[in-house]
Amino acid sequence: xxxxxxxxxxxxxxxxxxxxxxxxxxxxxxxxxxxxxxxxxxxxxxxxxxxxxxxxxxxxxxxxxxxxxxxxxxxxxxxxxxxxxxxxxxxxxxxxxxxxxxxxxxxxxxxxxxxxxxxxxxxxxxxxxxxxxxxxxxxxxxxxxxxxxxxxxxxxxxxxxxxxxxxxxxxxxxxxxxxxxxxxxxxxxxxxxxxxxxxxxxxxxxxxxxxxxxxxxxxxxxxxxxxxxxxxxxxxxxxxxxxxxxxxxxxxxxxxxxxxxxxxxxxxxxxxxxxxxxxxxxxxxxxxxxxxxxxxxxxxxxxxxxxxxxxxxxxxxxxxxxxxxxxxxxxxxxxxxxxxxxxxxxxxxxxxxxxxxxxxxxxxxxxxxxxxxxxxxxxxxxxxxxxxxxxxxxxxxxxxxxxxxxxxxxxxxxxxxxxxxxxxxxxxxxxxxxxxxxxxxxxxxxxxxxxxxxxxxxxxxxxxxxxxxxxxxxxxxxxxxxxxxxxxxxxxxxxxxxxxxxxxxxxxxxxxxxxxxxxxxxxxxxxxxxxxxxxxxxxxxxxxxxxxxxxxxxxxxxxxxxxxxxxxxxxxxxxxxxxxxxxxxxxxxxxxxxxxxxxxxxxxxxxxxxxxxxxxxxxxxxxxxxxxxxxxxxxxxx
Length: 638
Ligand SMILES: [Zn+2]
Hints:
Layout: E1 3-6, H1 11-33, H2 54-71, H3 74-89, H4 118-135, H5 140-156, H6 170-181, H7 184-196, H8 228-245, H9 248-264, H10 296-313, H11 316-330, E2 348-349, H12 378-388, E3 395-398, E4 401-404, E5 410-413, E6 418-423, E7 430-437, E8 443-449, E9 457-460, E10 463-465, E11 470-476, E12 483-487, E13 493-495, E14 507-512, E15 515-520, E16 533-535, E17 542-543, E18 548-555, E19 573-582, E20 594-595, E21 598-599
Helix pairs in contact: 1-2, 1-12, 2-3, 2-4, 2-12, 4-5, 4-6, 6-7, 6-8, 7-8, 8-9, 8-10, 10-11
Bound molecules: zinc ion.
């Protein structure tokens, strides 16, 4: 895409501004006080932080690079240069760069490929350099990354160490470095890393080799598995390699893995990772909301993967998942003020949390409220680089025109076309595209109609056009001053889970447009928790952008000491208005219990009091209500 600039107001503009005005300074402060920045240029004995802490400096540099490209603010550039110089000072003459290995008193270089994260660290260094090259050009810092990449090609290329890093990341980085430099050695090295993995080449570990996707060749897998962030970065790199080398089989393998993963291993929010012990995908349909790990970084990786698949294939499903993930994980993690973050993004919080102290690092998944910093602090810097580069995901161009994938107030400019998108999405579903400048020849404006937007309408000037979910392609000779209006139906809706997801069977969720809603105890009567909530799905939802009201019930629960028995748990209830708010805002009003999946009102009389029950062969049915077939259709009249 040529140039995309967000408008002054709007859902994403606000978050991008908070990233600029608060998060970047916040991160700088923590990189300082943690000592992780000082590791560059300090003696080995003084090193602080985990083995991968260098990457937080690199992701911060990447965020600054995108931010400077976006704003051309000299202070941002000065900060970039000062940190980049510090990083450069720690590079060895042969290109090696890592503060945790290779010096007297430290483990030797590449002595722990399973857990050492050296190549992973180069990956983030290189991605920061790619951001710099794309926004400024090849400067000294880009040369640092090139020297590191040359070193990697020498040490891990043909005839060198025939292995991979326990944490993928260098794969997409090298492919991107090839794109900005044109040097095919980097692409070939990325291809080698992708093709070696699964040999297997790494040692077995307690989580099994699937943890780092070394259990089978990348192109042989059917589904994503293991550590979720690793799986996303690896497959993002595999798509890059497939596209740049023309490997259709590899691309199809990743598409297949993505389809199966989305069908069986992704939360409603777009979040991934249902296992805490190894931050990993669980088995098919094992998606417990109260054990959702859903690491923020895994969603950053999921957006990176879906974006590459969208560019490679043009399939709308990838843009749909990007939207879901942006609104419901990426927007959920940071606090309003941009100084606290969720590392994990649960869909069900059963206990009231406590606010972590503002000046302490907390263990990664221990906090039930957003925390300022973590001992493993991958997520805040990942968010910062994502917000700084967010406009990249809005639109694309090709020879035929402009494709708008995500909606926000913005101006879009190419050499041929200038468009202004006006909307307060997702508060409303009204999106107006003003044609400001257009060539005198026909071209195609493509708009995404999300999969949930059944019943959307579109008008071009005064002419109506079809707007089925999928791509809406409008080909014509546009003239300056014309408008295209897309109206997406934003009424709140009930969403039911596949019956194989046992953890939420009998529950329903509420969505409005692309936004998942949730119940929080701060909206319930004092002394009650969300675990007492039931929803009556037969009563229509009352809805506004900020809040949806459902008919609910609170069930009285007892603490008898044995949570099993006859069918008597749900019988004492109290009707309540159930207020639901956007999940991305949860926990912004203090400690709260929260749930996305709401149990349906299932109050039933005890067995034996429901009237006559069939005693003939075949399924037993309660004759008091309509007969439902297995798809839930009313078949009592058939
Ligand atoms: Zn993370």
